[in-house]
Amino acid sequence: MALIRSSSPHLHNAGSTPKIMRLLLIAALPGIAAMTFFFGWGTLIQIGWAMLLALGFEAAVMKLRRRPVAFYLRDSSALVTALLLGLALPPFSPWWLTLVGVFVAIVIAKHLYGGLGNNPFNPAMVAYALLLVSFPVDMTRWTAPFVLHADDGWQVLGLIDTFKVIFGALDHSAIDAFTSATPLDELRHRGGLTTEEAFRESRVLADGVGAWHAVAAAYFMGGVFLLYRKVFTWHTPLAMLGSLAAISTLFYLFAPDNFADPFFHLTMGATMLGAFFIATDPVTAATSNRGKLYYGAGIGVLVYVIRTWGSYPDAVAFAVLLMNLAAPFIDQYTQPRTYGHAKPKRGLKEDA
Amino acid sequence: MGHVFAFHGGIHPPENKRQSTRKPIRQAPLPQHLVLPLAQHLGAPAEPLVKPGDRVLKGQLIASAAGRVSAALHAPTSGVISSIGPYPVPHASGMEGTCIMLEADGEERWIEHQGLADFRRMPKSELIDFIRNSGIAGMGGAGFPTDVKLHLGEDHIVNTLIINAAECEPYITADDMLMRERAEDIVAGIEVIAHLLEPSHILIGTEDNKPQAVRALEKALKGCKLNIDIRVVPTKYPSGGEKQLIKLLTDVEVPSGRIPADVGIVCQNVGTAYAIARAVRHGEPLISRIVTLTGDALGQPQNFETLIGTPYQLLLEASRVSDRKLYRLVVGGPMMGFAVDNDQIPVIKTTNCLIASTYDEMPPAPPAQECIRCGLCEQVCPAELLPQQLYWFAKGRELDKAKHHNLFDCIECGACSYVCSSYIPLVQYYRNAKAEIRTEEAEQRKAEHARQRFEARQARLEAEKAEKEARRKARAEEAARNQAKKKDQSEAVAAAPSGGVGDLKALKTAAAVARTKLKKAQKAVDSARESGSGDLAALESELQQAQQKADAAQQALDAAERGDAQAAGQPDLKQLKTAAAVARTKLKQAEKALKNAEDKGQDGVEALRATVQQLTAKAEAAQQAYETAEKGESAGGADTAKVAELKADMDAARGKVEKAQKALDDAIASGSPAAEKMKAGVEKLQGKYEDARKAWEAAAGTAQPGASPAKLAELKADMHAAGAKVEKAQKALDDAIASGSPAAEKMKAGVAKLQGKYNEAHKAWLDAGGEAQAPTQTEKPDLKALKQQVSIMRTKLKKAEKALEEGEGSEAEVQELRQRHDAAKAELDGAEQARIAEAAAAGVDLKQLQIDAALARAAVTKAERALGKAGDDDREALRQALQEANLKAEELNQTLSRFE
Ligand code: SF4
Ligand code: SF4
């Protein structure tokens, strides 16, 4: 009998980081399915390719950092990053675009900052923003939902052809029929049309928008599942969606001709993906519940501002990165009131 | 059942309580060797009352409580004390503590004991003492001596008494079983506690996973007249934490850093209530407790009524432990207990549970990963902290930030570690950080202490050095002086001024340094006294030393100065002597030449003779000059030292005279035949005294031609005093004669003597030039002296007036005094007027100047006082202000003194 001496507590909850990551992967399944259904195989191929790359880079970096490779690969955080990036990239993005993106996300945004837990910015969003700035053409060539080019039944570019397109075996002109701008793009480049006119004139806006609605609904489902499993608290998503809804309602009521309605904002682009899968990334968010409210609300407002007045079509990535930057500051000023204290503390030190 | 509130966070670990509640509480086997640690409670360890070899009975007091927060210890069974020494005790660190070893004799013979007939009729303090002597300490975990908490009723208003029966930790069922089986005694114990604390409300808080216990309690409570409520809270860890239970039951939070009694609440554990009941009802001290034995490595998990001091091993064996399966032995609960690696450690008063776990049951924690800030820990923290931030700060050793994030409000419940996604042993980090902060603070205190001591020591050393230096200087000077004396005196004159001045300077510096150190030491003492920190005695002794050094330095300086003055006071004798010698030599030469010339009959004899004559005259003149100079040196040389010496002689002589006079008086009074002889002796002594006095007066006279006005005033005052005495004596004599008293004769002599004294004083005053000086207005009258005189007059006048009122003195006397006073006052006023006029002539408003000076002085005093009171920070600034004020005051004083 060799007794051991150890520090309390002697029990541990079964929950763990790898488990959380796996839950995230599961929760993304409806979204992936919806994307595939409406936009073809591209999304699946992107996710698979990105995950492969992510595991490769992760393993390589772990080797370089002399850490046990297998142990760290198991935490699945690299897979989550790859998943988010794969979902965010246009389904027909060329392979090298994904490669650059995953490299930036895993090697630069994550490990150069000290690895999981120490990265101040959401790796997937860093990569996305960088790609958007560097390769705007590739990043805005979105796939058209099948409802736009198929009159009857489900008709998307074949799996093999999609592979060929992505890995350069097939010229991009071959898929021109399958591409279009996103609704957000359409709306911002509508010229002098009012919102209502734009919705009537543009095919994407008139007929295709349903696809995006469906995808948003799928992400929402996944998010609710995660909430139910207590992977994160309601604070961030609710604050983000709430503030986005509030500000867009305000402007829509004020000038419905110039601004899109709140439902459009909530369902288009990466809003739902951002609210439940990106903004909730705990590593880069604010920590306290109150802090999360501020953090989420900040993202919502920034999304609207950048979408409406900025020069980039979607804004979730930039909004998240900007709020990542603010998170430590928010943390300092949103400490909870500790038991037995009259009021919460502020700042980092006594005199702050 | 009453409303139950909620606290933030909390977790739901698997309860694992069923295993050990299947069997009733069983008596544990009697161990052969019992190990009884002296520190089973919080506070000072008990003091053993037995020694090895002593035979003790069951329940006998073997160690007494030492101090306010401590608990007594009793023998759990009868037997022999085998030894007292260090032995492993239940502690997370596996450390050893002093224990009393008891060899059981197996007879279990009780000491005589008896419960209290009616505790309600006893004075409360006696009842509390009785509980204290029963060695009862909190049985819930911390082991806080119970009697201390029972005293709380005295200085706190206790509204609510909370009986903690939550037992929220998984596995443990000791309290549960106790309530199920012995609810009666628990209620009896609560009655005792309630009697002592007089709460308006009693709440028993338990979790909803103990329905049987609740039922048993409810049954026992029937017929109890106290206002007791059982509140069942949802099972959640850590609802049994004192602060959490208070929040759950009353929605009140105990302010950070305070105790529950500060908000009118006292918590006691059910086990404690039971122990109190055993003591009060049956007179049984705390010698046993219920211990849960559980864990997958046991064949028969159950609760034991266990004697304190029973080694774990015996209990494990009684529960059929499987050595093969046993992996971890946890004392206490799985959340807050500690694992031990030694099964010989004994059960103590706070041991509520032993978990013999298998590997699968409590596997080692997986390697910790980076915190992903998932926030789970924050969601469960019952103290509402940010565990992930605390972890970040603790890991990065940013301790002040950790402190700012309320690290010290962490109750180390382990909930955060339990849920941490990355398996980070958070609690361990917090414990280390807390310990580090505590040591750091202790070190800071120590360093501050050391700094103060160092400074005091430094001051002392410097003062010592200065003193040594001063002594060395003084010695060197002495040596130089001696040498100078031995050598040609004229040489000394040349050497002294140059050497003396330099030495003086050094001495002055030394004295100043010593004074500074003294002040510093004084300040250190003051601040120490203010802050109440220890070592005051040491500081004070240091201060005294500094004072001595300063005095010594000052003395050395004074002595040197005096010596210097002496040296400087010597006229240039050397030159004169040399001149005389030269003249003599020349004369001799001339004489010789003359003689030669005369012998040889040379020409020019006449001329030579003239020369010789001239030279002779010259030599004589030189000699004379030298001699007068020398005489002047010894006679009128203004040798203050000599004057002082003379004065001392005189004083000694006077002392002798007085003594002799007294002896004589005694002798006369007793009619001794030696009186005559003594009288002669006294007269002789008186003569000697007179001589000494004359010598002194002569010396002083030459030293200060014309006594100082102050001196004169003194003399005058003396004279007047003597006059008054004479008058009083005369009056007494008159009275005596009138009444025909036999003492009149003697009194007459006394009066005569006094009269003589008065005359003497008068003469002294006259000699000093009083009469001559007083009426004639000097160029600049000494205002101070005048003022003094006026005040003396005033005093005298008042005295006389009072005497008159009392019917003693004579009207005429008062009148005369008044006149004198008025005259003096007029004189003073005149002088002052003159001075003001003079000042006005110089364009200065004297009055204003005076006021300014007074203000400046007041400012100085104020600054000084502020400095004395001020903390270290302001001290520099204040010191500067003081210096400025000082400067100003001095300036003004100087200006003022120009006109005074
Ligand atoms: S151990 Fe401290 S920080 Fe962790 S949950 Fe308990 S009180 Fe909070
Ligand atoms: S539970 Fe662990 S990993 Fe999660 S935030 Fe707290 S410390 Fe970090």
From TrEMBL, chain A:
Source taxon at top rank: Bacteria
Oligomeric form and interacting partners: The complex is composed of six subunits: RnfA, RnfB, RnfC, RnfD, RnfE and RnfG.
GO terms under cellular component: plasma membrane
Transmembrane segments: 20-41, 95-113, 125-144, 209-228, 237-256, 262-280, 292-309
Keyword terms of this UniProt record: Cell inner membrane, Cell membrane, Electron transport, Flavoprotein, FMN, Membrane, Phosphoprotein, Translocase, Transmembrane, Transmembrane helix, Transport
E.C. number(s) listed in UniProt: 7.-.-.-
PANTHER family: ELECTRON TRANSPORT COMPLEX PROTEIN RNFD, ION-TRANSLOCATING OXIDOREDUCTASE COMPLEX SUBUNIT D
Family per similarity comment: Belongs to the NqrB/RnfD family.
GO BP annotations, alphabetical order: electron transport chain; transmembrane transport
Role description: Part of a membrane-bound complex that couples electron transfer with translocation of ions across the membrane.
Cofactor requirements of the protein: FMN
Keyword Nuclease carried by entry: no
Membrane topology: Multi-pass membrane protein
Modified residues (FMN phosphoryl threonine): 182
Signal sequence interval, chain numbering: none
Location in the cell: Cell inner membrane
Name of this chain's protein: Ion-translocating oxidoreductase complex subunit D
UniProt entry tagged with the keyword Ribonucleoprotein: no
Main location: membrane
UniProt cross-references to NCBIfam families, sorted A to Z: PRK00816.1, rnfD
Pfam families in the record: NQR2_RnfD_RnfE (PF03116)
From TrEMBL, chain B:
Subunit (UniProt): The complex is composed of six subunits: RnfA, RnfB, RnfC, RnfD, RnfE and RnfG.
BP GO terms, sorted: electron transport chain
EC number: 7.-.-.-
Residues of the 4Fe-4S ferredoxin-type domain: 362-391, 401-430
Name of the featured protein: Ion-translocating oxidoreductase complex subunit C
Residues reported in the UniProt entry to bind [4Fe-4S] cluster 1: 371, 374, 377, 420
SUPFAM superfamilies linked to this entry: alpha-helical ferredoxin, Nqo1 FMN-binding domain-like
Recorded GO CC terms: plasma membrane
UniProt source species: Marinobacterium nitratireducens
Coiled coil start-end: 783-895
